[in-house]
Each structure stands twice: as C-alpha cells, then as structure tokens.
C-alpha cells in the first residue's frame, strides 16, 4: 500500500524544465518518486530517464507515463470483475438488526478487534443509522467472522518489530486488516488477476493498492466529529484505540 503524493500542482515544475532544458533534451531524475517531475518534462517534449530505489514508486511512475491503456476494455473488465465481486461483498456486509435485514456500511472496533458500534442502512433506505452493539450482536458478529475461511491468496509477510509504532512481535501484513476487509480485498485482487491483463490490469492494481491503507486498521476515526466519523491514513504506521 502507498500514499499517492499527487498533492502539489506538477505544472509549477514546468518553469524549471523550460529554464534549464530545451525540447528534445533528456531529463534525468534518479530519485523520481512516482515520477511527477519526469511526467511534466515528458509533456514538455523532453526525453526522460526516471528511476527510484523503491519498486512501488517505479511501478507508479510507469503507470503515470503509460498512454496505451484501452479504456473501453478497462470498463468491460471492470464490469466482469464487479459482477462477481458484488455478491461476495454483500455476503460479508449483510446483517440482521431487530429482525430486519440491513447493509453494514462500517464497523467500529477497539484495539482488541472487538466490534463496538456499526453504521448501516436498511435495505431500500438511503438514510444511514448507527447502533451500539450489545453482547449478543458482538458475539454473533465474531462467531460469523471466525467461521469464514479466506480461500484467496493474501500476504503473510512478517513485519519488523518496532516499539515506536504499531509493529508488534510476530505481526504480519495481514494483521493490519480485519478478517472481513482482508477477505474482500483478497477476493478483489484474485478477480483482477483472473479477469484482467496487461496495462489494464496494472492500472487496476494502482487503484487497488492506493485504497488499501484507507481500508486498514491504520485509519482512526476523527473523534471530534463522532465515534464513527471516517478518518484518513496519513502514512504513519499506528493503530489507535479504535478503528
């Protein structure tokens, strides 16, 4: 997962490129990050050589400069992927509250991964509601979650223990996600691998990896706006009291 640092207008770099190079010149950026400088140089008709030590940055760099993506094929592939993915997700997010079938939107958990609150919509309604989960609902939720088997591949790479952040002993990449989130993302990645290929698949993977952190335990709620208020990942590796 990564943070796509496309926050600053890359066009401002154009002044430097115009001042120190001419059209047809070669611009070298050996510390390119995801390639914003060379992308701007390319748009200004310079040849570019762009590289970074980080392979993820290079992957993003290549996608940023890629111009031969078939958008119609991309849409067709996404339709096939979403048609298979939607019922799988619905199974995980469907719940029963007060004898009514509802669609869960988000579940607030404590640092022990125990559900505390849930935000949901009654099927057919547009209004979101919140509920504090009592012991019975917590038990049902955990029981259902524990009974599920994740059949698709997901990474179990060990993290380097670091007491200054939330990387604990024997922790793996998969521990950064709840089982529900891990299962859904593993299924989505599996479908992307199966139903897409080439440059279109690479573009799907950019979107997939860019969204991973915001679906992880690393996103705390903004408590000043309410317990269930959505937060945002700011590149730190920290799990708060709730997520």
Report on the structure:
The structure is a single chain. By secondary structure, this protein is an alpha+beta fold. The chain folds into two domains: 10-65, no CATH class; 71-225, no CATH class. 39% of the residues lie in helices and 14% in strands. The chain contains seven helices and six strands. The chain has helices at 14-20, 36-43, 55-65, 71-93, 135-147, 179-195, 198-212; strands spanning 26-29, 47-50, 94-97, 100-109, 115-122, 128-132. A four-stranded antiparallel beta sheet has the order 3-4-5-6. Strand 4 (100-109) and strand 5 form a beta hairpin. Helix 6 (179-195) runs antiparallel to helix 7. The protein is elongated, with a radius of gyration of 22 Å. The model has no long low-confidence stretch (mean pLDDT 90).
């Amino acid at each position: 997962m990564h943070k796509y640092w496309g926050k600053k207008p890359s066009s401002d770099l154009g002044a430097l490129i115009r001042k120190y190079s001419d059209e047809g010149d070669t611009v070298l950026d050996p510390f390119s990050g995801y390639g914003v400088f060379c992308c701007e140089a390319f748009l200004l008709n310079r040849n570019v050589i762009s590289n970074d030590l980080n392979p993820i940055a290079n992957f993003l760099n290549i996608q940023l400069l890629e111009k031969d993506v078939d958008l119609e094929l991309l849409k067709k592939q996404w339709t096939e992927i979403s048609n298979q993915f939607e019922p799988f997700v619905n199974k995980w997010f469907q719940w029963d509250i007060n004898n009514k079938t509802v669609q869960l939107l988000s579940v607030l958990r404590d640092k022990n991964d125990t559900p505390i609150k849930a935000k949901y919509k009654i099927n057919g309604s547009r209004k979101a509601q919140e509920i504090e989960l009592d012991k019975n609902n917590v038990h049902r939720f955990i029981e259902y979650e524990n009974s599920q088997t994740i059949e698709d591949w997901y990474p179990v790479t060990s993290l380097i223990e670091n007491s200054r952040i939330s990387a604990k002993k024997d922790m793996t990449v998969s521990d950064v996600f709840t089982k529900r989130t891990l299962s859904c993302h593993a299924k989505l990645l599996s479908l992307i691998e199966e139903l897409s290929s080439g440059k279109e698949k690479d573009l799907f993977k950019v979107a997939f990896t860019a969204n991973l952190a915001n679906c992880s335990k690393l996103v705390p709620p903004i408590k000043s706006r309410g317990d269930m208020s959505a937060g945002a990942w700011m590149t730190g590796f920290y799990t708060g009291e709730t997520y």
